[in-house]
Design goal:
Strand content: 25-35%
Structural class: alpha+beta
Helix content: 10-25%
Number of helices: 4
Largest sheet: 7 strands, antiparallel
Order of helices and strands: EHEEHHEEEEEHE
Distance between the termini: 5 Å
Number of strands: 9
Length: about 140
């Protein structure tokens, strides 16, 4: 049995990192990368997720959901065509309500944790969504 983790609590925790700079491999207030942010937010809510986005997508505490049914607090996973998952973000609105997400764009983007609508380029790389659950 798994219990859903509160989306409001997850997003509240993630929003504390808005503006924190991108740092490859980072997992703290000095800098985070995309999967580091998700790892840190989940850990704050007593869910131990792996450190990397691909491993997070495959973890038993991440229940797959159809992308078009994603809700605020769910995870979005991204990959280059034909490649493995290489980016993760937290949905901050339901898919049907504008596709907003909290994530850390790579260094070539804004370079800081942001909450923004998913770009067209990002949507083209979206491969799956998942709902974080806690062992119950």
């Amino acid at each position: 049995t798994h219990l859903e983790v509160s989306a409001e609590a997850m997003l509240s925790t993630a929003r504390r990192f808005l503006g924190v700079r991108y740092l490859w491999g980072g997992t703290g207030a000095w800098g985070v990368d995309c999967s580091g942010l998700v790892h840190l937010v989940a850990r704050t809510h007593r869910v131990l997720l792996p450190r990397d986005a691909a491993d997070q997508a495959a973890h038993p505490c991440v229940e797959p959901v159809p992308v078009e049914r994603a809700l605020a607090g769910d995870l979005y996973f991204f990959a280059e065509p034909g490649g493995g998952i290489d980016h993760v973000g937290l949905a901050s609105s339901a898919w049907a309500e504008g596709r907003w997400m909290l994530h850390v764009p790579e260094a070539s983007g804004t370079g800081v944790v942001e909450e923004a609508p998913m770009s067209t380029d990002r949507r083209a790389r979206l491969v799956s969504a998942g709902r974080l659950t806690a062992p119950g």
